[in-house]
Amino acid sequence: MTNWLFQKLHAIPVDRQSGMVIRPVRRSLKVIENGEVFGIFPEGKRCKNGESVNPKKRGSFFGLKTGAPVLPVAIICLDAKKWIRKPVKKVVVGPMMYLDELESSIYTAFAEAVMKLMMVLQQSKKVSLP
User: Fold this and answer.
1) Distance CA 79, CA 100 (A)
2) What is the pLDDT of residues 60-75, one digit of tens each?
3) Burial category of 57 from C-beta neighbours within 10 Å (exposed 0-12, middle 13-18, buried 19 and up)
């Protein structure tokens, strides 16, 4: 069931246990280079509201490698019991980030800039839904 859903969402599976990540990286780069939308959690996973996690460099890699702009999005969920899926309270969309606007082209610096903006978005009172 889950596999079917992710296929319908055009998710790119990554088997972290195998150590073979080049195939998903190539598929991801192709999606971006084709001008399609590519979403990635900069934390490397979904996080609880307010949870502080260091960003992974992979999102920065894709942005720097392709020159594609990055659109930071914060998804804030309602608090709910653990056994219930948490409904989305609001989605806050930040301004488009372009790599040439940053002082450094280092992956870590870009990942931290995106994460910092997402934390600001989480604190935002403005609700922005498409």
Assistant:
1) 38
2) 788 888 888 888 888 7
3) middle
**What span, in angstroms and rounded, lies between the C-alpha atoms of 81 and 76?**
15
**What is the C-alpha separation between 5 and 8, in angstroms, rounded?**
5
Six-digit token string for 55 = 């960003």
Q: Tell me the average pLDDT across 43-66.
A: 75
If DSSP codes are grouped into helix, strand and coil, which group holds residue 79? coil
As given in the structure block, the two tokens for residue 91 are 């989605």
Task: Give me the residue label for tokens 């599976």.
Answer: 13
Query: What pLDDT score was predicted for residue 79?
Result: 66
Contact 36, 9 (CB under 8 A): no
Give yes or no for residue 128 having a pLDDT over 50. Answer: no
